[in-house]
Design goal:
Distance between the termini: 49 Å
Number of domains: 2
Oligomer: single chain
Number of helices: 12
Mean pLDDT: 88
Number of strands: 12
Strand content: 15-25%
Order of helices and strands: EHEHHHHHEHEHHEEHEEEHEEEH
Helix content: 25-40%
Shape: globular
Strand order of the largest sheet: 1-8-12-9-11-10
């Protein structure tokens, strides 16, 4: 039986609909403003102009996507839980040494039939992978639980419907009673959304080539919620946006969180001589218009939380209000409309879309 593989995204309507999960590119320092030198930045070419993970603060970015497991699996198949966890723990190291082509090839067979993967040989590079912040943090660690709780609280402060506070039972902390063996005739399903979260499963795929323990599936991001919903959810293990997990699974009754798997992959793009945005000069965005891909979801919610943290006023542009000189003006954008001529000073865009935009306008 041919195995299919899942990946752990950005996505982002809360996953297309959920998160802006994707791959990442060069840092702002590598693509920064060259106004100090002889060559002025092109007015028609995109470049990196800020890192939302850096703006958010902390050493590890924000907890974007998490791995959850069915409580019934946690209670009866401790060996399988330990195995998938070990794969997640090895993801960062694996991705640091694997070629981008190897990663693309590994995941290729596990997408839903008919899907066009967002990660491909043209947009996935070592730099993109590195900037996707794939690194596992176990829910057994208090610091991980605190990160998630704080982030959810920040999202709720921006939009009370964006997330929910979770119970202590949502977090999986291994106990001696969770030692059920995974038998050779049992296969556990693992689901992840297309985009950056899929990268988190590359190590699992590479380690499972000769095993039938896991059946991996990479699905369209807008369908990931369905895999953990209903009377008989399809996913034994699932990667999904943390805010979606909080709303669907926050009681810990049906699923528990094993850990964080991705830590943000959203970047600011700009053209011309606009400044690179850092925590120290974030106020330079006042009076500017920022086009935000998935404004109602993780990218936009996180950016709004950052502006709130720094007490920077902003407004969401609509049909009945014009850009203000004393606020950051946020404009909802579809990724296809993120162009140098799109009418915004900056764009907040997930990877790999951000990299694709930069490459498409290079030299113009």
């Amino acid at each position: 039986m041919k195995k299919q593989f899942f990946a752990i995204g950005t996505a982002i309507a809360m996953s297309a609909a959920l998160f802006a999960f994707a791959a990442c590119e060069e840092t702002p320092e590598q693509n920064g403003d060259d106004s100090q030198g002889g060559n002025q930045p092109s007015a028609n070419a995109f470049r990196m102009a800020g890192d939302l993970q850096e703006l958010y603060g902390g050493e590890n970015g924000y907890p974007q996507a998490v791995l959850v497991a069915k409580t019934s699996v946690l209670e009866t198949a401790g060996a399988a839980v330990e195995t998938i966890t070990s794969y997640m723990e090895g993801s960062a190291e694996y991705l640091a040494q694997a070629s981008a082509q190897t990663v693309v090839d590994l995941l290729a067979d596990y997408y839903t039939e008919g899907m066009t993967p967002s990660l491909n040989a043209k947009n996935l590079t070592a730099e993109v992978i590195a900037n996707c912040s794939v690194k596992y943090y176990s829910a057994a660690e208090e610091t991980t639980r605190t990160r998630v709780n704080n982030y959810l609280a920040e999202l709720i402060a921006v939009d009370s419907t964006a997330a929910k506070a979770v119970s202590d039972a949502f977090y999986y902390v291994p106990a001696a009673s969770d030692e059920g063996a995974a038998t050779s005739d049992v296969t556990y399903t693992v689901y992840a959304p297309d985009g950056a979260p899929a990268l988190a499963l590359a190590n699992a795929v590479s380690q499972s080539q000769e095993s039938t323990l896991f059946d991996f599936h990479i699905v369209a991001s807008e369908t990931i919620r369905a895999q953990v919903s209903g009377e008989t959810p399809a996913a034994d293990f699932c990667i999904l946006p943390v805010n979606a997990a909080s709303k669907l699974l926050g009681t810990g009754e049906k699923y528990k969180m094993l850990g964080i798997v991705t830590n943000g992959n959203i970047f600011l793009l700009t053209t011309g001589d606009n400044a690179v945005i850092t925590p120290e000069n974030l106020s330079l965005l006042v009076g500017k218009t920022v086009g935000v891909v998935q404004l109602p979801n993780v990218p936009g919610l996180t950016f709004r939380a950052v502006l709130d943290k720094y007490d920077i006023a902003y407004q969401v542009l609509g049909n009945d209000n014009a850009p203000a000189a004393d606020k950051v003006n946020l404009k909802a954008m579809d990724a296809t409309n993120v162009t140098p001529a799109g009418g915004c000073d900056y764009y907040l865009c997930p990877e790999p879309a951000a990299t694709t935009k930069i490459n498409a306008t290079a030299g113009k």
